[in-house]
Design a protein that fits this description.
Blueprint lengths: L22 H4 L19 H9 L3 H25 L3 E7 L2 E6 L2 H9 L3 E4 L4 H14 L5 E7 L4 E6 L4 H10 L7 E5 L5 E2 L9 E3 L2 E3 L3 E3 L2 E4 L9 E2 L4 E7 L5 E6 L8 E3 L5 E3 L11 E6 L3 E16 L2 E9 L11 E4 L2 E12 L3 E8 H8 L21 E7 L4 E4 L5 E3 L2 E8 L5 E10 L2 E8 L5 E8 L2 E11 L2 E8 L2
Pfam family, one: Pro_Al_protease
Keywords: Disulfide bond, Hydrolase, Protease, Serine protease, Signal, Zymogen
Family: Belongs to the peptidase S1 family.
């Protein structure tokens, strides 16, 4: 499901400059004297798959990967800073568009180097509207419900002949006209399972695809097996499974199996997984599955609700990547960042289609396991050993903790420094707050898309505290700080 905003922290002032990503640098990369850019820094087969599926040249594919990475980083920071005023973001070429609900937030977006679009409804309002609309209509008629951030509205896809009935149901629920679009589709979504062939794991006579390696096993789709079901190749047991409602599962494997932080690219190699930061709407993503192999497309929406024959699943990632039965549970990547697990959809890899993915961080959090990563990432600090006072703890995705305690610590005027070492593959943030008038005000923050953060603040004497926020992903953290 969509991460709730970090509302417990009072933001005193918004950062004037959030991230200075250079789009000029993102479009560079062609070796001098050569017409073909260097692709050795990317996962084997990724650029070739983008050329095939997206109709790009090699130079265009490399430029797009670099641009998407820079813009998605900027989008993550803006979403955190704007909080309730944030209404979604999308990529169009080399430009990041960020929807906001008022002029003040629009100024923050422009100061960060993105294009602001002022809209009527925030993302949280749109999410609530989508849930209300989906619940108002008969499940058997709904293919999918999702938020379209570009139009600042909700879209409902329904079976042929059902548009009138669904439109009437939405109206009876008191939802304003024009806020929900009802569209008929030629094919209803289904789960991808029970097709023979490919690189897979098996549940009795059925086949699914491994999602991502996690502590002691792997995460995959919940519809592939219920809790207690056993698997083969590799052998394991479903310890956690949720479907419908969600579509995630965790399979614990035996000691003879070795979970590796990599994804099969079906081109004779693998893609190293280095984290699980969510990419922006419009970003390029690629999927791996045991039926159709490696295919690419873009993210079209987050927090989509989809109705399968077995029931409704909410909080999914909507994409235009193709998939087919047997790909269920497989991996969705943005570069080397894990995004989701193949749930289901419509269409196929001959004519194209729409595929939905269960966000991976929710699956990891539900199973209380960590993503296994393997190469390509930066080396995190080891426990923030340069700081004088240490703290540590553990958080689930979306959680927060005050350090070294809720009452804080007293300091004299001068410079306070702090650092945070979060779990690999997550997005943990660090805030410095000062007591003021019976409440806490944020005076400094580290809110990048990485698991590790550092903060430096020069201020007056008073009572301060640190707040650690698990923006995405779960696990144990360590940190430390030094006071004047």
């Amino acid at each position: 499901m969509r991460r709730t905003s970090f509302r417990a922290i009072t933001v005193a002032t918004a950062a004037a400059t959030l991230l200075a990503a250079s789009i000029t640098a993102a479009t560079a990369g062609t070796a001098a004297g050569s017409d073909r850019p260097d692709v050795t820094g990317y996962a084997p087969g990724m650029v070739a798959a983008m050329e095939r599926d997206l109709g790009l040249t090699t130079s265009e594919a490399v430029a797009r990967l670099k641009t998407d990475e820079a813009l998605s980083e900027k989008q993550v920071v803006l979403a955190k800073t704007l909080d309730k005023g944030y209404a979604g973001a999308w990529v169009d070429g080399t430009e990041l568009f960020v929807a906001v609900t008022d002029k003040a937030h629009a100024a923050e977006v422009r100061a960060a180097g993105a294009t602001a679009v002022t809209v009527d409804r925030s993302l949280s309002q749109l999410d609530r509207l989508a849930t209300k609309a989906h619940r108002a209509a008969p499940d058997a008629k709904i293919a999918a419900t999702y938020v379209d951030v570009e139009s600042n509205s909700v879209v409902m896809e329904v079976a042929k002949g059902a548009k009138g009935a669904v439109t009437s149901a939405v109206k009876r629920a008191g939802i304003a006209a024009g806020s929900v679009s009802v569209v008929e589709v030629a094919e209803m979504p289904r789960t991808f399972i029970n097709v023979i062939g490919g690189n897979a794991y098996y549940i009795g006579g059925s086949r699914c695809s491994v999602g991502f390696s996690a502590t002691g096993g792997f995460v995959t789709a919940g519809h592939c097996g219920s809790r207690g079901a056993t698997t083969s190749q590799p052998s394991g047991t479903f310890q956690v499974s949720s479907f419908p409602g969600n579509d995630y599962a965790y399979v614990n494997v035996g000691s003879d199996d070795n979970p590796v932080g990599a994804v099969n690219n079906y081109n004779g190699g693998t893609v190293n997984v280095t984290g699980s930061s969510a990419a922006a709407v419009g970003s390029t993503v690629c999927r791996s599955g045991s039926t159709t192999g490696w295919h690419c497309g873009t993210i079209r929406a987050y927090n989509a609700s989809v109705t399968y024959p077995q029931g409704t699943v909410s909080g999914l990632i909507r994409t235009n990547v193709c998939a087919e039965p047997g790909d269920s549970g497989g991996s969705l990547l943005a570069g080397t960042q894990a995004q989701g697990l193949t749930s289901g959809g419509s269409g196929n890899c001959s004519s194209g289609g729409t595929t939905y993915f269960q966000p991976v961080n929710e699956a990891l959090g539900a199973a209380n396991v960590s993503l296994i990563t393997d190469g390509g990432g930066t080396t995190p600090p080891t426990g923030c050993t340069s700081e004088r006072t240490a703290f540590s703890g553990s958080l689930w995705s979306g959680g927060q903790a005050a350090e070294p305690g809720t009452t804080g610590f007293s300091v004299l005027s001068g410079t306070i420094t702090g650092c945070l070492d979060g779990p690999s593959g997550t997005d943990f943030d660090l805030y410095l707050q000062k007591a003021s008038g019976g409440s806490w005000t944020t005076v400094a923050r580290g809110i990048t898309a990485a698991p590790d953060e550092s903060v430096r603040y020069t201020g007056t004497s008073g009572t301060y505290r640190w707040v650690v926020h698990a923006y995405s992903g779960s696990g144990s953290y360590t940190g430390g700080y030094t006071t004047p």
